[in-house]
What we know:
Number of helices: 22
Number of strands: 25
Distance between the termini: 44 Å
Radius of gyration: 30 Å
Helix content: 25-40%
Low-confidence stretches: 673-678
Oligomer: single chain
Amino acid sequence: MSEKILVFIDGVPEPCFAGETVLQAARHAGINIPTLCHSPLVKPFGACGVCLTEVNGNSRLVRACATQVNDGMEVVTRSPRIDSARRAALELLLGDHTGDCVAPCTLNCPAQTRCQAYVKLLAQGEYDHAIAVIMEKIPLPASIGRVCPHPCETACRRQFAEEPVSIAALKAFAAGHGTYKPEFAPATGKRVAIIGGGPGGLTAAYFLRLAGHGICIYEAMPKPGGMLRYGIPEYRLPKAVLDKEIELIESLGVEIRCNEKLAGDDELSRLLRNFDAVVVATGAWRGMKTGVSGEDLPGVTDGIAFLREVALTGEYNVGERVAVVGGGNTAMDACRTAVRLGAKEVTVIYRRAIEEMPAQKLEIEEAEEEGVIFKTLCNPSEIFGNTKVTGVRLQKQEPGPPDESGRRAPVPVDEFEELAVDTVILAVGQRLEDSGFTSLGKTQRGNFAVDELTFSTNQPGVFAIGDAVNKGADIAVNAIAHGEKAARAIDAYLKGVNLPYKPPVLSRRGIKGRADIPEVGSFPREIPRVQSAKTRKNSFSEYVSLLTPEQVKNESARCLECGCSAYEKCKLIANANEYLSPEIIITGKHHTSEIKQISNHIRFDRGKCVLCGLCVRICAEHEGKIALGFVGRGFDTAISPAFGLPLEQSDCNNCQKCVENCPTGAMTCLDCTVFETL
């Protein structure tokens, strides 16, 4: 047995055996020295240069994996000099690392849902696992799957082949077919009050309850759900679906007190005396005005108030002729609701061209199918009537120079027309109602000012989320994202710990078009069954069916699997997040991200390979095989099976240790379980 010696690691004595390396000695001491190319299965190689350390008496930095210790050696594992060298090594490695750490659908989802993972699980028929993945971020998946304008699909690269994957429809299917019962932590004794039971408040309640805290939601309306209940029509989101999801949250022990509207600083102070933290999730319930004369006439309402009244009573006397002013999704909900209430002529008035409407294209198309008339490039200049609205005077518009949104700002021209109406619905935006919480800081827009990362306000113990904060009203999944992120921050606050956060360093492939994605056959997007316009416009019943299991199998198979399945265990990215700034921009020549199936079980992505050589050395030294080797010289060097043949035609024994030890996910196993790796 080797003799015992004493080595000083960062000033702390550590007994170890002669012949061990600095890396081994540091690990004995519980100190992490980063490395990419090291494995205990093979001899030290030192190719990556990430494990550089300082040894007293040596003017040069040494590679910890290849430097043997000696008695009395003094080792420093972190210093400005070491960090600088490690940064340089990591930047060089990242300079030729091309891949997607995270799929673009996930990056474009406000809630950062692992879309690729649950789509893959649905393809495998793993419905329960799929819904479990979704509910890591979204506790209302059936509702969001129906109403979300799916920014994830906007980023889906399948659109370069034909159309994006139907991610939202797949989410709705998973919610309808998968079962999941979340587990929560032991009770902490801490209590949180949440003002508002909309999607943001419900989400915060869900995740804080899972963390073991006691939760009470104060909801001003007769039932919880916020805009999901009172702003989304029944035909798009059946309230029975929403109720079932809220019941799950209540079953965890979340208390919901309805018809309790809390307002004013006295109420806020009372809550702070009785609870350990307060979340303000009041939403934005007041419709914005246009500023034209006559908008206060009877028969003129705002889109939010109109949809709320219909949701509460199922009725609204709109008359025969309705004008809806606006071009967003609320305007589409309002005009299509007016059709279902029996209006004979419904007109949408929008000041830009129809192509520039912010509403979903599908919503616009379905409204047109239901008989809605679109009057574009015009804007109300006056709403007139005596005791009640009778008409709208419209001023023609023409496209001017682009505004701050990049769209061409409409410019009024001296041309008018009049439209006879019985009801005018203004759907031009929404804002925060006056809650009386004057102690909370506000933005210039009048919303609660919060920290973008923690959602904390200027008052200790008070947090705010959703449509009521910073930039104001947004889509429901954004409020859900706020709720989940705020819950993590509040949990840390209640436990008295800091929640350090910086954006992760991520590798992204620059995909610009069809030539940048793999060759795939043309498989059109699966579309849910939709009732005809003639049938659906006479009913508030849900008119879109869930996908069938066969459609789900076909649709989920269209996913290109952009994100890296080895992301969670990638040593390169883990070390990059430790040493590099997230804003770092790596430039230089890259290898082509060529993906090859090199055996029946293994896929190799040259773009992710950093030529650490670990796979080649393990194959040769540990397994005694020559199945993999280096091909080419200099920059063009690559890893390849002998003669470029499949591994089955070499002396490969399919041990898959090349996959297990690859530090970047360049080698991946084709039959690994996606639930464990994505």
